[in-house]
Amino acid sequence: MDDKAAIELAGVHKDFPSHGETVRAVRPTDLTVGRGEFFSLLGPSGCGKTTTMRMIAGFEQPTGGTVYLDGHDVTGVPPHRRDVNMVFQSYALFPHLDTYRNVAFGLEQRRTGRDEIRRRVGEMLEIVSLTGLEKRSPRELSGGQQQRVALARALVNRPRALLLDEPLGALDLQLRQQMQLELKRIQREVGITFVYVTHDQGEALTMSDRIAVMRSGRLEQLGTPREIYERPATRFVAGFIGTTNLLDGHAAGVADGTAVLTYGPGDRVLVPVPAGVREGDKLEVSVRPEKIDLSREEPTTAAGSVLSGLVTDVVYRGTSTSYTVTTAAGTDLVVFRQNAHSAEELAGPGDRVFLTWSPQNSYPIGVR
């Protein structure tokens, strides 16, 4: 048990009965969330992230394992006696109460003094940028404003942790992106631990201090957004977090911690590898599209990876242009080129091109 942790799961797992069988929704999981951390549970639908959050909140009892809040075992403690609050996608605002009364509701239930309620509600409305909207009913507020009211209502009681279950899912894309930054700002200001459930990779990367990527009830990888994106631990993580290119090949040689995969005359991929990788080992490599340079000119030097191929597709995406290239490695690679200076296409379908990148931008995700 970590006494410095806001939340700790020790061997927590959850089984559900289904048609006479037992389905394991969450496999035995050890997880620690630090105090004041913005922590995200990320994964596709059905991966167990919401069930994990509900076990933290007390809405689901784990089949086994222990849940700690601030170092105290709360595994059998009901939700209303756990010092955490939860915000849902539906917001669940009281339609008959105005903004002020919605936020003040929890304090009123605790019989907090009127002056204290006025002070704390005022502070919280200022933090969530709703000052001046105290008398508006939920139906008079936009989706983003309703979401802020739900946040303020959850935070005004000063819980030790706030659990958020896909709270931005009902918003349109532009507002969702705006609220991601707002959520992070609010979390920093109040200093409360946030645990955030989402299936949106960009959302998790934007807001989180750390991310737990889940799949089929299992924790696939835990790390900072940069670690998860730049150094994916598994093929699933590499493919789920953003866009990546996956290459397979056998090490034609290994020297000074770098393996070389060859695919034909002039085509090679250099991969930094851990100790123990030997010539002949099969490697699986992840390369992010923005790490690759594309040119119609054959490189004069070969200090890094070089693959030749034919362009099969070009897609203009506004800030960048995406090129799909069928390479000598026997797979299609995607390349992103920023349109910072010019949106003019470097090549078109059918053109022969050369792809180059630095060895450190090849990341091994599997060795066999």
Automatic annotation (TrEMBL):
CDD domains: ABC_PotA_N. It catalyses: ATP + H2O + polyamine-[polyamine-binding protein]Side 1 = ADP + phosphate + polyamineSide 2 + [polyamine-binding protein]Side 1. Its EC number is 7.6.2.11. SUPFAM superfamilies: MOP-like (SSF50331), P-loop containing nucleoside triphosphate hydrolases (SSF52540). The keyword Translocase applies. GO terms for cellular component: ATP-binding cassette (ABC) transporter complex. It is an enzyme of class 7 (translocase). Gene3D superfamilies: 2.40.50.100, P-loop containing nucleotide triphosphate hydrolases (3.40.50.300). NCBIfam families: potA (TIGR01187). The complex is composed of two ATP-binding proteins (PotA), two transmembrane proteins (PotB and PotC) and a solute-binding protein (PotD). Part of the ABC transporter complex PotABCD involved in spermidine/putrescine import. Responsible for energy coupling to the transport system. This is Spermidine/putrescine import ATP-binding protein PotA. It comes from Couchioplanes caeruleus subsp. caeruleus. The lineage of its organism: Bacteria, Bacillati, Actinomycetota, Actinomycetes, Micromonosporales.
